[in-house]
Specification:
The protein is α+β, with helices and mostly antiparallel strands and 347 residues long. The protein has nine helices and 16 strands.
Length: 347
Amino acid sequence: MRPLTFQILRELSDAHFTSGAMLATKLGLSRSAVSDALMEASENGVDIFKLTRRGYRLAAPLDFLDLALIRKYLAHNAGRVDVDIVDTVESTNTELSRRVSAANLPSGTCIATELQTAGRGRRGRHWQSGLTTSLTFSLLWRFEKGAAQLGGLSLVVGLAIVKALQASGIIGAQVKWPNDILIEQKKLGGILIETQGDMLGPTTAVIGIGININLPDAMKQMIDQPVTDFAAHAAVAISRNQLLATLLGELIPALGKFNTLGFEGFRDEWLTYHVYQNCTVHIVQNAAESFDAVVTGVAADGSLRVKKMTASGLSTDEIALSSAEISVRPADAKPARHNHSVDMKVT
């Protein structure tokens, strides 16, 4: 959507009508420009009531991001986080990577968006999101290590997200190796990490995160796997501003600790939240081989440890599987197209 459309939407309320003439006068626009912008908003899924001689009213409030509020919630991390909010972007990961290429940005640089139009997930899949229906952002972190030594980074990020959700009143969130957040076997969010740098280091990681906040039913029906959202499980309403600050408050120290200890410093705690620990799962490897296995744990490098199920029973040998090679689902689940499955986010 155009910047003008966002500007007009921020002037609307769900509690009372605002006339088109008032909007036009306040923003220095023509009545037709206001009408065209609000039509664009409607075409992008924003429900707006219109009454003759009364004007426009939102059907439901829009929880826009507010940098002042985010900074207020982030007061204890103010020196380590630099947040920028953009109205709309194809992908926050792509935008942050572009900025990194143009400038020497520090760890803790974050881009959050109101609307992401071409969010990317694992293996190029698309991440569904609408205006304020998701929280989608990317965080930059720099490591002196090479990318090969960052195994388990997505797992550490997932653990930090679960702990932030707990601090926000969400009970029952779990991690699904390697990069999904689930509640009651339904996807709440995901992670997409993209790295660049030399083989031996240093490495720049762009960490994309997407959390479903309040997905419309029509959007849920577009997703070919069970999904849920924050609103369905929150005991108390929390703004996206507060949730973003809480997430960053967990992520920043976790990334610092990971830089020193690696995944080994988190492994035992991560396993307590793994939805498939000690469970039988169905594994598709390289889209060519599939088998059932029992999840026995995760190695220090973040690889999944499993024992294959054979015709004669459970194998005694463990094998390690990397995130680049497989997808995991419950053994009794039907194959899914996973067009909402991401290593992330949205980006």
